[in-house]
Every structure is written in structure tokens, then in C-alpha cells.
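Could you show me just one protein sequence together with its fold in C-alpha cell form as a worked example?
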Amino acid sequence: MSALHFDGGTLELKLPFLPDLQLRWQDLLDIVLLTLIFYRLLILIKGTRTIPMLMGFSLLLALYVVALLLDLNATQLLLDNLGSSLVLVMVVLFQADIRNALAQFGLITLFRDTGLQRKNVVDSVLQSCIIMARQRVGALIVFEQDVGLRNYSERGVQINATVSEELVQSIFHPTSPLHDGAVILNRKGELVAARCILPVSMNSRLDQDLGTRHRAAIGLTEETDAVVLVVSEERKEISLSYKGQLLRGANENIREALIQVLEGKVPETLQKKPEAEKDEIDEKEEPSSQSGNDAHGPQTQSPVT
């Protein structure tokens, strides 16, 4: 068993499987701080162009090691000359990423809870959706999660701006050249791209009355873990799509479900998928005169709406 010893004002930790290793409390603090710093750095560069560029530098480093082992003089000379200016090259290539990292990095950013920032983004987006629904303006807003959406955002028009009600409404205004397609918000809550084309669901069990906008929202959530808000200009309502399901209801219910999904939780209204499917099958076998769409409160439709 590990043992703690206090000797001369120094607290030491001895591990039985590593008898020659002695850890002071300062060493443990060092490890914790470095872990937090590297974790924060990985979060900052995740999903950015920095990752593939760092992989390229790693390949060059591996090539340099091979050149040393095999005594490849020409390759070693070339990489030595490149390495002498490597710091300058990295500063030039990563200047935008370094600037953003320094702006976000620090003790306050390192330990802060992003829950408030997440709710502010949700409130801004939902408020703009409410206004657009009243004005009969359609919209499709995607919230990226763990599965990256660069395959879709790179095909759209790059925006890279802070989310605001005015920005979202101006993008989806019918006279805007960007109103077609969807906008994508990354994990930081930034609006990265507009006019993005999403995959349309090919599920034959979907309601025939659903338009292309709703089918695109369902299609994306069938393939990724993203959550999508849909504003219908015909019904003047806001819907939420997640994991191939479509949730309709009061705006407050949509807001609560959206926040829960972004926090890594599955709302109760979206946890009833098997029962919903079973009910739909029973209704098909025994036709009923009830429409099923007049009930009050949130309605989960999966996959038939």
C-alpha cells in the first residue's frame, strides 16, 4: 500500500510498486496544474486547423529521428536548417490561433463554468427564432457537439462571428443572399458558417407534410449528435430535432430541452422513442379518427410526425 510520510516540513508519498519513487506534495500539485493547462490547450485547438498542422510537424519530427538513426546526412541537414527557424514558422502559421488562445486563456477562463455562456447563446438564438416565427421567416440553426461538422460548415459561407439576435435575423431575412440553408454554431457558441447544406432524411416513415427544412434537420441528427432548431414560416412555430426525433411544443419547453441536450443530457420528452414508435405502429394497424396533433404541451415525433 502507498504511504504518506511527513519529514522536515515535507510531505512525501511512497508507492509500493515504485519503491525508488518519492513524490512530494509539490510534485502532485505540479502534475495537476500541467494536466489542467494541457487539457485547456486541447480544448482550445479541438476542431481547428491546428490539429492537422501539428500532425504535420509530428511527422517531420519522426522523419528527423529516422534520419538520425539511419545516418541520412542530407535529410538530417535539411531538417536541421528547417528546425532553426521552426519557432518563427510556428508563430506565423498559428498567429490567429495563438491570439485567440491568449485572449481566452487564463485563470478565470480556465476554471469558469461555461453554463452561463451557453444559456446566453441559447437565449439569443431562441429570441431571434421567436421573432422570425412571428414574421413567417424560416430558419435552420445547428448546434455542434462532440461530432465535428466541418464537412458541412466548410461548404457554406464562413462567418466566424459572435452570435447575436441581429446577426441571426439578418442572415435568414428573405432578401439576404445567405438565407438558404442552415447556420452552424460550434461548441464555443460561435456562428462559424451560413448557407450550409444538410443531408435530407430518407426515412420513409416521416410525415409527408414535412418540408425540406424539417427533413434536413432530422437527417443531420440521424447521422451526428448535433441538435437543430427549425423555424417554420408556415406554422409559425419552433421545433427541435435531436437523434432523429422532432420535438414540438411551447418555446419554454424547447429552451429547456435544448439546454439539457447541450449539457449532455437527454430530455425526458425525447426518451420515449420506443413507446412512441410502438404507438405509431398500433395506430397504423387500428386506424383512429384522432389527429394526434392537437394535444397541448411538447410533442415528440419519432420518426413519424
In short: The chain has two domains: 3-111, 115-272. Residues 81 and 246 are 58 Å apart (CA to CA).
